[in-house]
Write a structure and sequence with these properties.
CATH topology of the largest domain: Aspartate Aminotransferase, domain 2
Bound molecules: pyridoxal-5'-phosphate
Number of strands: 15
Shape: globular
Structural class: alpha/beta
Radius of gyration: 22 Å
Helix content: 25-40%
CATH class of the largest domain: Alpha Beta
Order of helices and strands: HEEEHHHEHEHHEHEHEEEHHHEEHEEEH
Largest sheet: 7 strands, mixed
Length: 466
Amino acid sequence: MTTAALPVHQPTQGAPDPQRGERIRATDRAHLFHNWAAQGGVNPIPVAGASGRHFWDYDGKRYLDFSSQFINMNIGHGHPKVVAAIKEQADRMCMIASTFANEQRGEAARLIAELAPGDLNHVFFTNGGADANEHAIRMARMHTGRPKVLSTYRSYHGGTAAAISLTGDPRRWANENSGSAAGNTVHFFGPYLYRSHFHATTEAEECARALAHLEQVIAFEGPSTIAAVLLESIVGTAGILVPPAGYLAGVRELCDRYGIVFIADEVMSGFGRAGEWFAIDHWGVTPDLITFAKGVNSGYVPLGGVVVSDEIYETFRDVVYPGGLTYSGHPLACAAAVAAITAMREERIIENAARVGAEVIGPGLRELASRHPSVGEVRGMGVFWAVELVRNRETREMLVPYAATGTQSRPVDEVVAFCKENGLWPVYNYNRIHVVPPCTITDEEAREGLAILDQALSIADKYTDG
Ligand code: PLP
């Protein structure tokens, strides 16, 4: 069966076509091998089109996208300026090897370097976030001549060998068991006051103790063995954990003291998600390397990369950097990045994310927390929010346990199913619902989504014993 001859879909919703949807689903099930899944249980919704903050299926059902797909479509679906830039570049030249200079590639690098803090003036392009982290780690190891990289238990850094080894979340385990993970990785605990690993009761205490813990890990691992600390500026998938004031500055200080490279993973938190170009801008800290992907061009064409400080760039002035990719700086992806960054500036999309977070989503979620006993904590900034669900507010027992499998996740599965039935597409992770819509979301759309979430949380409330 082939779908090649089917006409192109328009970004406006056409008439439902359930039979076509079924054909697409059948072809998928016959030939697709899906990500992060036991293949036997996969049953994807065939999506017919998408526009702005919505997508729709072949039955004509519309979803308000509170996920930005994989938390990457910061500019929303089908932004006409980004689509036009890709078409224009495709007409001119689809591909030219990274050996050559290319207008869009250079311009994308210039814009990204201009947005990055401090002296991070050069960009190494990759295809996505995991390979951006792989290359940042490689640069740090060569720059320092040291092997180990430190990262937090509550983290996700990507699905390739070193990136999944540095990932803290349970997706790492099966990779370790199968021998697919890389070595020389060490995990530590980052700050997370609601479930403090340090018995802290204030943000200031959590910050000081988390930094003291990191310094101890550095001391016991041996500073002369450590190339880099890799940190999400705001932890994304593993909790949307906004660090306390002073934490990232403290990490910077520790890295300086011990000659360690500070890599900020901004793959999810960057390009407006947290209401700034880079989340780390909230604290005025300059890392040595920034990794990015997702929001740089909202994934209209795959793109990621590493922004490199002058000091690390100098290491490779006369020494060959032993890494590269066929599609490094792909012209279509870079054209999309130039258009996306330019549109985000012109249309003040990042300012919109910050404002909607501060005026609508944050207050809206806090109001839900005041009425639903299943909500233990809400936290976030910009369009980057977590609703943490508990069985009991006093004990903070998670509504779904860490690393839950099978029926253990039923309470949250039911909440998510209600949202989807009612046209809201959220993100969830164990006991959390993440509210991560595109940065372009309107106040009305945000309120509409929160109203559906309000009803869905009544299901979670039934599982509480507080
Ligand atoms: N780093 C972070 C913080 C991420 O959230 C992700 C993906 O979700 C990655 C890295 C990996 O990016 P990619 O899936 O593009 O390889």
